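Justification of resources, computational component.

The compute hours requested in this renewal are based largely on the per-chain cost of generating structure records like the one below. Each record pairs the submitted sequence with a full structure-token output. That output is archived, and it is also reused by downstream analysis tasks.
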Amino acid sequence: MKDYYAILGLCPNCSRAEIHKSYRSKAKELHPDLSGDNQTAKFLALKEAYEVLSGKLTRDAYNRSRRNAQKSRPESTWDYRSFLNAQKDNPGSLARLICFDLLHDNGSQAVKLFEEAQSSGYFSLLQHLEREDFMDYAFLLAEVYLEQNSFVKAYRLLRGIARLEEERPYFRHFYVEVLEIMSSIVQRQLPEDQDNRLRIAFLSDMIHLSYPPKDLARLRKLLSELLASIGRYQEAAENLFEAYKLAPRLPGMKEKIASLRESGYRCG
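The structure output for this chain reads:
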């Protein structure tokens, strides 16, 4: 069976604080975003070891199975997923089960569990995971939703990641990918709705995130066009002026600004 203590570089009588400290230290070294794809397998193994040993119930069950394997049944294996599945009425175990499936290329099952949990009442992964773990797993869950063309659900998960990242950086340069995916969803992948209300709502939120100036200008320009299409001309003008400040050389920008000024609009 897998030696989760060895993966974390710890002895079996280590404290929970030591487990947490070791995981964080090794995760920084092995995170695929920082170390490259060749470390992905080690990173996933590290994640699994931490998931098992950081919870009292899962650690106790693993320790019992480990002792049995060492004493009398060396061929014994411990099925972490089966253990979690038997405990999934507990929200914390359910959260870990969703994470396990995401780590083991069973995204469709993870999404099914996640949606069942949400439909049965309030359920939040963030409530049952540490902040950084939530961000990692929420991104994996968003990727599954993208594969299923569930763009609104993917966007909402990514927006949750963005909120946390803006408060205190964790993804750092990988955050650029989160922003790019959100932008792609809003610009090209959202389903049509009446008066583009959803797109306008998402864009109105996104313009407050840490996009590079030129990207932010494009978002504001698109928002301006959508607002103008439904008669919200003053808001449209304000966003176009802001876009011009950020990137005056965007194609067609000077002409649009000149037209606004001729119509009596002025930068606030």
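The mean pLDDT is 88. The domain at 1-78 is CATH 1.10.287.110 (Helix Hairpins).
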